[in-house]
Amino acid sequence: MPKTDYYELLGVSRDASPDELKKAYRKLAMQHHPDKNHGNKDAEHKFKEISEAYEVLRDPQRRAAYDRYGHAAFEQGGGGGFGGFDFGGVGVGDFFEEMFGEILGGGRRGQRQQGGGARGNDLRYDLQITLEEAFRGAEKTIKISSLATCEPCKGQGTAPGTSPVTCAMCDGHGRVRAQQGFFTIERTCPTCQGAGRVIKDPCKNCHGVGRVRKERALAVNIPPGVENGTRIRLAGEGEAGQQGGHAGDLYVIIALAPHPLFQREGANLYCRVPIPMTLAALGGMIEVPVIDGTMVEMKVDSGVQSGHQVRIKHKGMTVLRGAARGDLYVELIAETPVHLSKRQKELLQEFAIEAEANKTHPASEGFFKKVKEVFGK
Fold it and tell me: What kind and span of H or E run contains 288?
């Protein structure tokens, strides 16, 4: 019985790109995979056919031979010189790596190199600092407890004078294969757990692990201008790797403590400053605080209202990795006097009578005028 054309099996044109071939194969393989069609011989046969087609067309040399000679290129004695096609080499492990390898970041084989240990885990440390420290920058010392390289065995896990030996189960490859029907199943070696090596005489300090828990003190340089959530990476300061693997990284996450005077938005600072009612009415000069610890003079215009903002340029936060500074916004709050003496009350009553006659409160007068217009009273 003649074989079906490989391009027809995958449902693609003869000039299909590698990406188009892969997409077509993935779709059909998921549809006809034996695990989803238990006992269905037709699906099993179809899966074998499309896998065979894809294995040929994914390889540029095999595809070129197939385009020229057809199926004869892979038959014994065929003109293409490639020999017979062995479908038995396509295993379940290869199938899942083909289907999901990109999603999982390159597949399982990239997690551990042959003869080398696994990379250590990355760590996170939350560090709270003051707004002043964020403005100026600072150097902080932190203490972390993590898995560090065992000193007696240098992280190898072996007793002094000994070395790991090649795993006899997987011959140092870290993976073993088993044939099941026409599938070849590949899995992590159960003896060495994928390391490719085994320890016959373990280190007494770490019991063969190569790592011990240890508390360390680290210096963290905080640059001026950092914000909430800024991430500082300390390369190689995470957990130690296994059996000589690279150490992970430590990520220090900055959190700013609330400030009693200032609120921050980006590089700008906001400060609410209460002023006496008389100063708001008459105007004058006041001093306001700056994040660098100094005071700056600011003019208050006469008749200023509560909530009015005054911008003071270049008195805000330092800009991260820059020489500029943000601005300081001062919100003025006119304070009503309390605990008045008899004489003060008399003066205010006199002021109120004259103020009503001279219409010195346009905002309140305008509001009540609108009330009369709306309700007709």
Answer: strand 284-289
